[in-house]
Specification:
mainly alpha, Arc Repressor Mutant, subunit A, 2 domains
Length: about 150
């Protein structure tokens, strides 16, 4: 058995292929279907990407890969949206991998309001989910600096 991947190791072509589909908004089962892989293989490739990028979640992996120019975001439909300061702050929370409970605490809103605000942000960024929102924001250079 080989040693587990280490942070900083380059992603394999197969890991990049799966991460690219995550950035396009596909779920694990959809990725498995598209690539004709088992769901477990998709999970394994995402786990390897996570370890190498040092990011535990899909959103963080997409952001880290985009920022490192390892992943080239696909051109989203239309022109870049204009974000309000509040939306930019929310995008920073989302792109850092913050979960809804942490977002609701940070914004001093209910969990359902935070969920609604994240959904609205994804819609404004023409994304199906937060990983795709981060990818699209990266393409348009909208990601707030760390």
């Amino acid at each position: 058995m080989s040693a587990p991947p280490q942070p900083g190791e380059p992603l394999t072509a197969k890991e990049l292929e799966v991460l690219d589909l995550v950035a396009q908004g596909l779920s694990g089962p959809k990725i498995a279907e598209r690539l004709q892989l088992s769901k477990q293989t998709v999970k394994s490739r995402l786990r390897g990407s996570s370890q190498k990028l040092g990011e535990p979640g899909r959103v963080g992996m997409v952001r880290a890969a985009c920022v490192a120019n390892v992943l080239s975001p696909k051109r989203p439909r239309g022109s870049a949206p204009v974000l309000t300061p509040k939306e930019t702050f929310l995008l920073g929370l989302v792109s850092s991998g913050a979960r809804l409970d942490a977002i609701s605490t940070e914004l001093h809103v209910s969990y359902s309001t935070a969920k609604s605000q994240v959904r609205d942000l994804c819609s404004k960024l023409r994304a199906a989910n937060p990983p795709q929102a981060v990818s699209n924001a990266s393409y348009w250079n909208l990601l707030p600096a760390d």
